[in-house]
Each structure stands twice: as structure tokens, then as C-alpha cells.
What does this fold into?
Amino acid sequence: MNANLRPVRTAAEQSLIDMLDARLAAPPLGSARLNDLRQEARAAFADNGLPTRRVEDWHYTDLRAALRGVSPLAGDAAEPAAPSAFVEALRVTLVNGRPQTLPSDLPPGLTLLSLADAIAADHPLLELIASDGPAQYDAALALNTGFLGEGIILHVAAGAQIPQAVEIAQLFSGAEPGCIFTRILVVVEDGAALRLIERFEGPAERAYLDNAVIELRLGDGARVDHVRVQAEGEAATHLGTLATTLGRETHYDLFVLTLGAALSRLTVYGRFAGHDSHMGVRGASLLAGARHADVTLFVDHAVARCESRELFKTVLADRARGVFQGKIIVRPDAQKTDGRMMSQALLLSDDAEMDNKPELEIFADDVQCGHGATAGALDDTTLFYLMSRGLPEKEAEMLLIQAFAGEAVEFVADAEMREAITARLTAWLALRAG
Amino acid sequence: MSAVQETVAQVRAIDVDQYKYGFVTDIESEKAPKGLSEDTVRYISAKKGEPEWMLAWRLDAYRRWLGLQEPTWARVSYPQIDFQDYYYFAQPKRAPQSVDEIDPEILKTYEKLGIPLRERDALLGIEGASGSRVAVDAVFDSVSVATTFKAELAKAGVIFCSISEALREHPDLVRQYLGSVVPASDNFYATLNAAVFSDGSFVYVPKGVRCPMELSTYFRINERNTGQFERTLIIADEGAYVSYLEGCTAPQRDENQLHAAVVELVALKDAEIKYSTVQNWYPGDKDGKGGIYNFVTKRGDCRGDNSKISWTQVETGSAITWKYPSCILRGDNSRGEFYSIAISNGHQQVDSGTKMVHLGKNTSSRIISKGISAGRSNNTYRGLVSAHRKATGARNFTNCDSLLIGDTCGAHTVPYMEAKNASAVFEHEATTSKISDDQLFYCLQRGLSQEEAVALIVNGFVRDVLQQLPMEFAVEAQKLIAVSLEGSVG
Amino acid sequence: MLEIKNLHARIGDKEIIKGLDLTIPAGEVHAIMGPNGSGKSTLSYVLSGKPGYEVTQGSVTFLGEDLLALSADQRAAAGIFLAFQYPVEVPGVANMTFLRSALNAQRRTRGEEEISTPDFLRLVKEKAPLLGISQEMLRRGVNVGFSGGEKKRNEILQMALLEPKLCVLDEADSGLDIDALKVVADGVNGLRAADRAFLVITHYQRLLDYIVPDVVHVFAAGRIVRTGGKELALELEETGYAAYSQDAA
It folds into this structure.
């Protein structure tokens, strides 16, 4: 057999290529660089298509088989009722990928602009888009780059400590299914600090596809506390990519709360580009029904003396399926790296499934790295202990599940954000308990 | 401190400058024409006087193989193998009928390797230390040259012979079990093996019998450009127990030699099989030239309830190791174990691990893997643990630790864990570290040399696995570890 | 208060309790002594309703109610408290949260009003220092990182807050040095009351120097083989259990 034989394109792949071609012909396209990026992405997608489980990074999420068809790009729609505030924050809302009225009276040092405006004005920050992506082909990222046009650029000037949290809410609206491709660029200059919240929400019954990429650049000494909440409907497909590059002596903490969609995938690329930095990537996935959620991390220790901590908790009910893949890469010169990764899953049903693949890839000897993974049901002995103290079974279960997920939440430094996440956890549990 | 002194003494006692088993034995041999075709397959089958069904099985495998691709997912890289540039069958010209008729050159070879084939010598040589005896089947290039203690084993009802002989003497048993664990179409190398396997060992332990001695096979590749494709089949019938040891060496040659073996284990109800390997194929020279390509498929089937299969391996040799001894835990309450030490130095590439597939109820598995990388080598642990829907109460514990010596090597861990029911409990932990400066300094301060200290610390690191080996092998393995790491500390 | 009649219980296929009769009136302290492996702990689990322990015969009546018909949490609300031999660690659930949740759950089950947060805090503040439980221990996960003695003291604190009717202490002295033992015993003795009974399960007489029983039972091979006053414990200390083990065989 011929190793280069490509399988026939699926209907979804063909529609996406046709849509890409239409996009590439539709101005405004912006600078030659942006156009080259789109062309390259289109060519890469045409060559490689959607990933199957033979593609190692997508081993447990066969996107090619899952994407049966693709709806056209979602058009303008009325702004749906705003979801309740997560925490007190400056809010930017994108409906079907398009930014609505941006907040005015921003604190000094903070700049917000729509990607479309930035492209029209050939803004210099556009140079940073897709300038530090992963080396390997990533279908979700390539598609997003191919459709590049809508999104937000957020800039924090050197030394600015933004007092309010900034929330970027991405919502789907409309009666028909549709596709959304959005790109967010967040640049936090040297010594600046930002609290960032991303939210993804949409109507329960609509079968839309939502492909969102966020790129973060942290200058030397910057600090970002980032919370990402993804809670979409049971018919939606969510493809998320989060790429963060850390400068020297930075502090980046990400917390990902995944309540999922029919299928959701988040790929996190975290790269240390400067010494003595800290990155925490943690999260909780709570999945019920037939939801499938895949969280895949790449933590790249490219330089010495950095510390990373990854902790993910997955709670699976009904027929839900959770996937965690995490890879800590320690490059040859990244001595004194300290990396720890842990994925723990709680299966509440015999029909649930958890697939764990924590990897270490290490090329430097003076390092401390470890990973762990567990999967199992609630511990009978602990449950009995709680019941013997008078807690009814349901309540005892809820308490234990909350404690299980809470072990990851407690690393969120900001008390308000921590409470908001806990409230979402509690609401999910309460809904399930009926 | 006696353990320390013992280790140090052992390290000193052996010639550390080179691969000790790298000599070539000069004997006349008979080979199949170079290359691979249906004719080669027919030649091998005819040479061995096999029944018609066996030839048909081989030809079917060969045809399937033509349609398969070499796997590329492992973290190993090597130039394209020209499968037509190998000899697929070589046997010493004088076919021996008994130990007394074996070519004296071959006997000398095994003596150099420390494997006495004459039973009398075996008694003198091995008995004593632990009071145990070891029955040996020696495979030289493609054929089995001698099996010792056969008569005594026969008394217990244990069949231990070459697989060629088993095909003649016990065709029904072979036909029933061959390919039942690793099907002829399993993977690229296993399929190649099914087409051209030349010899190997066969063990059958009947119901309720505890095999009275350790069984052992010693594999030796001698001929230039020869592929070795042995096939081992071990069956432990209900309530039986057997412990089996395997050792491997090859001469030092500049070309890469190919080794693609298949090992199948079948444990029926209440049976237990313990399979230990010390793999010390030639790893290539300091520049990465030569060495064995070791592409091996090993799998055990815990077919009956309460059965147990345990793999223990010490991997120090080969230029490339691609090997995942696995357990299919089919029977209820069955248990699989995998204990591994994989050491890579020089330019060696190791991609090894295990698969524990939980199918039955209340099955348990345990994986302890210790990888040590030095020089410019890369050492990958790759493992799968899965519990199927109906495998309620499945338990797994995995621990894989890597130790890096020097900053030009790589250590990688790629575990896959698939839990498909709530009552399965999986625990996995992995760490990567280097020999700590504090530990090293502590040893040096107490008077140990740098190399002694490293050997000592490494032996401590792998102790959990060494303890799983039968006594004779453990001592041998300990020596090997020290030699393999020779020159790794600057 | 507690009346056990001809109780037979098993785990899986193995019968552990084989015809046990025991009556404990309110206000009394009963000790059950017996050799290791005789099934003493099984009795504590059967009384508290641990899943997997199956009662095949007999009855257990507690305050006139059929105890065996209740789930573990209902039994707790009814007033049964088990001080575990090996208290379980519950990571992620703060000790304080746990105590309040348990107390309120019991109150709800009994149809009582939940305790207010200030009242609860006052209650804990009053009881915890008596048992040497620090604020820091109250903030930590239940029993997580506690020493053996701290775990046992935490059990007694729970007992003090939940105010059960029948306290079952399973090897309350195991792993305790003499000072820790005194703290635990003082805690228990402080709770002795006319409307409360105790069942103290122990292998050694030592504990009974500090928690003095009214009645001592010898338990062997699944049932009570002898009953006497507190002097029986001292006798056992001298003669050991050998005689009873032989009886059983």
C-alpha cells in the first residue's frame, strides 16, 4: 500500500475548502502577510484535512468522523439577552463572532479594538497574530487562520495594572445553524497585569460550530489570571485553541471550566520563552448526557528555570466521555525545569468513559518532572463515612464531587473568580441532582 | 553495606571495555537464498518438514505482510530496512541429534556465554547457589541446537522442546494454540515472523503441574546479515505453573541485524506463567554503527479465571528496541504484571512498554517501569491500560520512573489510559529525575568512586524490578546494568 | 436503648457474626472485648449500616425502632455514632464545612431547624479547644494530614457536636500514646449522660482504665461468650483470650 495515499475528502472537508476559497476571494483581506497566512492555512488544510484518531494529538477525538456536515458562516444576528455577570467586569460581547459595541471609558493602559478595524487600518499589532504557533499541523488552528477576519485585539501597556477584570463573551445567536471563526489577540506588555475571563455560550438546541483561537503574549514580568468558561448546548461543536507565550519572570494562571457541548475540544499551547516563569494550567470538566470533551495540553519548556503546574479534574455522568491529553516537553537547554501534571477523573456512571494520556518528553537531565492520572468512582468508604455522620447519600455525593473539583478551583488566586466558578459547579451539581 | 560491596565487586569482575558477547563463531552453515519470497517461505517449511497446514498458514501470513506498512508511531528512527537483503534461514550444517553431536564450536560458544548445554555441566554449574536447576533450549541463528533436561521434564508431563520438534511430535497442540494470542495478521513484524519463523521454544505444562525447574531459552544470532525470527509458545493448562527465562546475545558486527520474534503465552484457569527476559543483543558501537534491530511482539492471554501472567524484562541491548509485552486479562480475577528495566546508552533507541487489556471482571494489573537514559540515547515508555465496559472492578497501578544521566539523552513517557466503566480504578504515576548531586556526593564522601556511586544508585533505582527476577538472572542483570552504563558519567 | 437479638451477619459468603444477643440500656457503658479477627469491628459496621455487611438473621431495635431498616445517614440522625478505628480522609472538604453539613443534615432529617452560622461557630469554638483541635485543623480537609491522635480527637469532636444517643467506639485507643489516650477518654467521659449509652470495642484492657465500663462482654467467634462487671476486663488482661478462642474452635 502506498503510504501517501490520502483518503477521499469528506463532505465537511470539501465544504470547508469551498468556504475558505470564498473567504480568500472576499475583501477586506488586509496586509500581504495576513493573506499569506490564510493561503498557507488553506493549503495545509487541503493537504491534511480533518484529523482522525490516527493523528496522535487527536487520538480520542475523531473529528473527521464527528463532523458530518458544515453549515455556512453565521451571519449577523440580534444580540441575545446578555448572560448574567460572571464577576464584575468590563465586558466585550461577540455575537456570531462579531464584536458588539465596545466599552468606552477604559482604564489607562488598556486598548480594545475589533480585529476587522485593525485589519482595515493595518494595525502594527497584527504582526503578532500567528507569529508563534505550534510547529505541527493543527486542523482547528489552520481553519481559524484560513478564515481570519473577525475578533478582538486587547492590549495592556507596559506597567499598567488593570483594576477591573475584562470579560470576553462569545455568544451564538440565530435560528439556523452556522459556523463561527474568531481570533482574539491579547498582548500584555512588560510588567503589566490583567484578569481575563472568556465565556462561550449558546442556545441549547442549535447545531452550530464555534472555532475560537486566543493568542496571549506576556511580556517580561507580566501577570495574567485567565478563566475560561465553556458552557454550550448539547448540539453545538466547539473547537478552541489557546496559545500563550510567556516572557521572563512572568506569572500566568489559567483555569478552564468545561461544561461542554456535543463535542468540544480545547488545545492549549503554553510556551516558556523566558527564564524564571510560572504557568498554571488547571481546570474542571463536568459532563453529562452524551457530551464529549477533550482537553489537550502542550507545555513547552523551551528555556531553563521555569515551573509549570497542570491539574485537571473530570466528572463524568451518564454516557459522557472525557479526554485528557497532556504533554510536558523539556527542551535540551531547559535545565532546572520543574513540571507537574495530574489528571483525575470521577466516573459517576458505568456508561461514562475517560481517556487519559499524560506524556513527558524530556531532553534535559537536571529537571524534576512528574505526572499522574487516576480514574475511578466515588470511594465507597468515604461515602459511608459521610453518611455515618448523617449526610443523605445524594448530599454526601455532591459534597464529594464538589470537593473533588474544588481541589483544582482553589488555585484560582482571585477570590471573586473562585467563587463564581464554584457557583457554576454547584449549579451544575444541583441541576443533576434534580 | 554488603550489597554495595557485592555490586562493586561484580562491576570490577567483568571486562567493561566492550560488549563481552561480541565474538563470532566460525562454523559452516546452510542458508536459504538471500531475500524474501514465497519460495523462501516454502524452503523454510520444507527444511523443517512441516505439515501442509503450517505451510498454508505461513503463505497466508506472507501474502498479508506484502500489504502491510512498517509502523512509524514509535519514537525510533532508522534507515529504511531492505527486507530483501537478509537471509531468512541459517542453520549449522551438521544437524545434531543429541547434545553429544552438537558442533563443538557451538558448544564452546554457549560455554563462553555461560550457558552449559550438557546436563552434567549444568548440574555442576548452576546448582548450588539457589539449589535450583534450569533446563535450557539454545537457539543458534535459526534453529534450536539443544534442549536439556528433557527426560526429567517429561516425567512431570512437561513438554519443553523446539517449536519445530513440537510441530512434528505434538502437531495438535501447536495447531490449537499457535496464533491464538498473536494472530498471523497482528502487525507488520508479527506477520513477517509468522511467514518465516525458523524456530523457537515450545512449552506445555499439563493440568495441575508445577513445572519442577526453571525453563530457559538462549538466543544467539551468529551469521552475518541474518534475520532471526523465533517464535515461542507457552501454554499453562489449568492450575499449572511455569517460570521461563530468555536470554539473548549477538556478535559485534557493523551491519544491523534484524530480530523479529513473537512470543505467545496462554494461561488457562488458575494457571500462572512467569516470563523473564534479559535482552543483551549487541547495541552498536559508540558511534551508533551496527547493532540489532529488535522488533518483538510478546503477548500473554490470561484466558481462564484466576490466571496470572507476569513479564519481567531487563533490556540493555539492541540498537533499536520496539517491544510491548502485554496481557489480555480475559478471565475473571486474572492478573497481569509487567516489570521492566530499560537502559539505553550510546545511540540506542528504546520504545518499550506494555498493554494491559482488562476484559474480565475483577481483573488487576501492575506496571513498574524503570527507564535509564545515558549517552545520546532515547528511551521511551509507551503503555496502554484499558478497562472495557464489562470489566467491572478492574484495577491498575502503574509507576514509571525515568532517570537521565547526562544532558544529551532523552527520556519520554507516553501512557494511554482508557477507563470505560465506573468501577475501574486506575492509578498512574510517573517521574523523571536525574541522579541527585546530593546522593552522589554522599556516596563519594563515604569513599565510593563516581562509577561505583552511579552503579549503586542505579541499582537502588531499579531494585523493585530486579527483585522480580529469579536469583541467577538477577545477579546477571545487575552486572549488565553496571556494564551498560560504563562511561556514562563524565 | 439498644436491643440486639440473635444477630447473624456476613460479608460476601463469610459469616462473621453468628447469633449475637446484646442489650444496652440508656446511661450505661458497655465494653466488648475479644481477640483480633473475632468480628468486633464487623459489629460496629453492622450497627452503623455500612454497605456490604449483610444481616441474614435476627433483629436490632434502637429506641423502639427497627434499626436495620434505616440507611446509614438515617441511623446517624436517629442517634448512632461510630468513632472509626481508622477515620477516613476526605480531601477537599474542609473539616468545618463537613461538621456543619453533617449537623444540619441530621437536624433536617429529624425535622429540626438548621443551626445558624454564628451559633455553630460558637459551638465549635467552645468544644474544639477541649480536645486540642486548632483553628488550622478545622480549616484543613477532613482528617487530611492529621496524625493518628489528631484523627481520633477529631472523631470525638464530631461526637461532641452531633450529640448522639449511642456512641460506638471502635478501638478508640489504637495508635495512641498515653497522653493522647487521656485526652480522648476525657472527651468521652465528658459526654456520659443518663440518656446516652456507649459501646466501647477494644482488644486491650488499657482503654478501660480511662473509660470505665458498667458491663464487659467477651466476644469470640461471632457471639458473646461471657458477660461480667468491669473486673472481667482485668481478668482477661491476665489470662488472655486463648480459652475463648479454643471454645470457638
